[in-house]
Write a structure and sequence with these properties.
Helix content: 25-40%
Distance between the termini: 37 Å
Number of strands: 8
CATH superfamily: Metal-dependent hydrolases
CATH architecture: Alpha-Beta Barrel
Radius of gyration: 18 Å
Strand content: 5-15%
Number of domains: 1
CATH topology: TIM Barrel
Number of helices: 12
Order of helices and strands: EHEHEHEHEHHEHEHEHHHH
Largest sheet: 8 strands, parallel
CATH class: Alpha Beta
Strand order of the largest sheet: 1-2-3-4-5-6-7-8
Length: 293
């Protein structure tokens, strides 16, 4: 009996298939689409990411054996969501999206995007000045009516700084990449307790994505960040999401070797230690947050 070797997925090393048993309805909750041929990047962009198109991502989705995915507008596009919405239209009902905005769309525009599959907006918060409290509160109030969430790419120290605001938002919150808890400090960082409490209150979700980012130990085990992921699962498994972060813009920009996405997926078994937890994180949690049938 011969086995077909998967094609090499762009921006991903290796050609192995998952050792993890992938449940039906599994979802990659965090990836990007870059298509500068059709959709020009914002003028201030310096990353100059090459195309990472829907066709390329479908290769990874097939290699994972996943049924669902969530497209996140990358910073290269600023608040221009045309590429993300175009990708969403091509990927259909198995996909959802999280967009970036600089002003709050009208209620009619939000409802139109909801029908297309948008379920949240994302703020990148690198420093205190990026955290526009008034605008965030305005957005949260409007999104709560739609059942959308706010996704924060935010440094762990800033989670602590803006704790009272995060605790008071009326919509759901999602923290990208383990809340960027520092690998050397991990769950001892006070942001861990803040995120854990918000999850316990059913107010927040945490993505245990991009275990390679800022790992001190590094490949292939990333055991410092994997330990953080495991602790987050233990804190509230029903509030944990998994994402690939393909095509790994942080690694491209910093000229590092691309991760093996399937090996990264297999590390989920060290964070969610039985099949029920894996299904909870890959299927049930994203189905609830993103509104998959």
């Amino acid at each position: 009996m011969t086995h077909t070797i998967p094609a090499q997925v762009p921006y991903s090393t290796g050609r192995n298939l998952p050792q993890l048993s992938i449940p039906a309805g599994a979802c990659d909750t965090h990836h990007h689409i870059f298509d500068p041929v059709k959709f020009e990047y914002r003028k201030s962009d310096t990353s100059n990411m090459p195309p990472a198109t829907v066709a390329c991502y479908r290769m990874l989705k097939k290699r994972f054996g996943f049924d669902r995915n969530v497209i996140v507008t990358p910073s290269a596009y600023g608040s221009d969501n045309r590429c993300t919405l175009d990708a969403l239209a091509h990927m259909g009902s198995s996909a959802r999206a999280v967009i970036a905005i600089s002003s709050l769309p009208s209620r009619e525009e939000l409802q139109l995007m909801h029908r297309l599959g948008v379920r949240g907006i994302r703020f990148a918060v690198s420093c205190s000045d990026d955290f526009d409290e008034n605008f965030i509160r305005q957005c949260a109030k409007a999104l709560a009516l739609l059942g959308w969430h706010i996704c924060f790419w935010i440094k762990a120290d800033l989670i602590v700084q803006f704790k009272s605001v995060l605790e008071s938002l009326p919509c759901q919150i999602v923290f990208d990449h383990r809340g960027q808890l520092p690998a050397d400090n991990g769950i001892l960082h006070p942001a861990f307790e803040i995120m854990s409490a918000l999850m316990q209150q059913d107010r927040a979700w945490v993505k245990i994505s991009s275990a390679y980012q800022d790992s001190i130990i590094g490949a292939p085990h990333y055991s410092d960040n994997i330990a953080i992921g495991k602790a987050l699962v233990e804190a509230r498994a029903t509030r944990i999401l998994w994402g690939s972060d393909w095509p790994h813009p942080s690694e491209y920009i910093n000229k590092r070797e691309m991760p093996n996405d399937v090996s990264m997926l297999d590390l989920l078994a060290e964070q969610a230690t039985n099949a029920q937890l894996v299904e909870q994180i890959l299927v049930q949690n994203p189905a609830k947050l993103y509104g998959f049938d």
